[in-house]
């Protein structure tokens, strides 16, 4: 819990004021039954002493005003403290996720992270609010009620001492049952969120393959699982209220029965019995509130544990031990020295196995190979999206691990295999490359990526709003916008991971011409499925099962490299046919 104190500290005044003001409400609730009993016994039953009754009524009215004021203030400050605390906690979790490497993100599903940032933190906020309101109020009413009840009649008050331990035991058992059920419920919610997000994001694919019924069944399974796990958890809460109400009613009946006998025997006054009954109700009501808070806290504990998993996850890529934090990428020279990489340390199979090559500044390096040969994994080591398991990746002669991460990635422009655009205007998406870019620079980058023509063809031009993921532009248009975004960054190293696969050959040729002229000082590393995309490269690297199977120009490889020949001739045959 210590780690959460840092999010409470800025609002410590609110955390103090809320419970303190609740004390005034508790004091009022404790005093009122006693004042009422005095009014009944010393005012109404003692010859109707009107002056005393009026005086008591005014005192009670004053107590009510103070009680209500304290209650309103206590609730206001408690709610504000809980909301502010949860907002800062949500920001901290989001910031932590932003620090994650791809490997860290792989540990959590997207749906799970969304649930933790929303539902789980909401649960923590609710229990914080409830705790600030009830933490003082419930124990205060319990202790104050017991003291006042014993001050009136010890025998009647002793009845409650029997019920309190029994109720405490019932609360403990209910909490023990509830905690694992709430854990399962949150995992079911993760699963439903993941399936919902996947379904909505890929709705066009689902419709094109007529898989609506299949996806509906999958969604229904996840929804049914969440329903069942939620019902299993809430059955515990459903049982709580009847058990507590039954205990309260039984205790009240016993107190009334025993107290009635005392009143009939003139051992106790009516007003005192009325006060005892009210204190009994208050004591048992406070226990009910405590039980509800504890039951709800079991769900919050499950959520808190899931939040802590994110906060406690240490990013496996940091620049804390970097020796060249002030170093900038100025030349764009890339060198791999005996580099090996695997995604999971406990696996023997390597995705990249003992790879060595050099890309000089301004060169165009083509990387080809069959699907699954490790092409994307290889280039992701350059901007440290993953770290090499063995060997060194050098940029401008410096190990990438010695760079400040921000400065390293600022010098590398990357168009990933999966082209991602964000909801917002086209110009806003392009400014991801350079948020301070002028409109002229944006137009130039778009023209270089062969995107300016079709963007200006839209009614709203560069101000056209894109749907989530850029769903309202074609695949080729999306690729060109992503290339323009990378070009706007003006990187020293530009990596294109199969980023022209949806572009026609004529347009691709124009983009390659820009690479060779306008970006002549930028090192270009191009992963391509089409051999034609890298024919003019200064060097082509052929990957096979994570190893370099060939290296050289097109003319050199077509003469001597079997793997390259297979890829080239198979593509030529397809084009001819």
Protein topology:
Elements: H1 2-8, H2 12-44, H3 50-99, H4 102-107, H5 110-152, H6 154-201, H7 203-208, H8 212-264, H9 270-312, E1 334-341, E2 352-359, E3 364-369, H10 375-379, E4 390-395, E5 398-399, H11 405-410, E6 412-415, E7 424-425, H12 426-430, H13 439-448, H14 452-456, E8 465-466, H15 475-488, E9 493-497, H16 505-517, E10 523-527, E11 539-544, E12 547-552, H17 554-560, H18 562-576
Parallel strand pairs: 3-10, 3-11, 6-9, 9-10
Antiparallel strand pairs: 1-2, 1-4, 4-5, 7-8, 11-12
Helix pairs in contact: 2-3, 2-5, 2-9, 3-5, 5-6, 5-9, 6-8, 6-9, 8-9, 13-15, 17-18
How do the SSEs run, as a string of H and E? HHHHHHHHHEEEHEEHEEHHHEHEHEEEHH
Number of helices: 18
Please report which band the strand proportion falls in: under 5%, 5-15%, 15-25%, 25-35%, 35-45% or over 45%. Answer: 5-15%
Major sheet strand order? 6-9-10-3-11-12
What share of residues is helical?
Answer: 55-70%
Radius of gyration: 35 Å
**Helix-and-strand structural type:** alpha/beta
Indicate the mean pLDDT.
85
Description:
- With 577 residues, the protein is α/β, with parallel strands linked by helices.
- The protein is built from 18 helices and 12 strands.
- The strands form 3 sheets. A 6-stranded mixed sheet has the order 6-9-10-3-11-12.
- α2 runs parallel beside α5 (110-152).
- It is elongated.
- 35% of the residues are buried.
- The model has no long low-confidence stretch (mean pLDDT 85).
